[in-house]
Amino acid sequence: MPPRSEEHARSWLGSGFGYGKALDWRFVTGGPMELGPATVWGRLTIPLVEGEEMTPLERLAVFADSGNGVSFALDFATHVFVNVDLTISLFRAPEGEWTCMDAETVIGPSGRGLTRSTLYDETGQVGTATQTLFVAPR
């Protein structure tokens, strides 16, 4: 996996935000403070339920919910964008701890957006995720 960058510690991922700190993030392209598409590897560092072993599918589902957060198209300081839903479509079962996401967010008219992510495990592509977004100025 790529090394963690210093930029990571200063971003929303490394701040006090629980979800951001619950994953180990490794950016290949883009970055946690950069507008635009991003490719990032990640893995959970804490269990979803204390004392329970997580499956690769559960790990992927948790990570897939961050497509909009890693490929944001508008500045967090000036806009809010909330995931209205998350759809994950897989053509094979994921394997292992690490998931990769190649994500891009587009903003349309009337306060709507869409994030599309291609999902991978360490052996290759496993499927896609989409997130519909509500977008508004802060």
Automatic annotation (TrEMBL):
<protein>
    <submittedName>
        <fullName>Thioesterase family protein</fullName>
    </submittedName>
</protein>
<feature type="domain" description="Acyl-CoA thioesterase-like C-terminal">
    <location>
        <begin position="13"/>
        <end position="135"/>
    </location>
</feature>
<dbReference type="InterPro" id="IPR042171">
    <property type="entry name" value="Acyl-CoA_hotdog"/>
</dbReference>
<dbReference type="Pfam" id="PF20789">
    <property type="entry name" value="4HBT_3C"/>
</dbReference>
<dbReference type="InterPro" id="IPR029069">
    <property type="entry name" value="HotDog_dom_sf"/>
</dbReference>
<dbReference type="InterPro" id="IPR049450">
    <property type="entry name" value="ACOT8-like_C"/>
</dbReference>
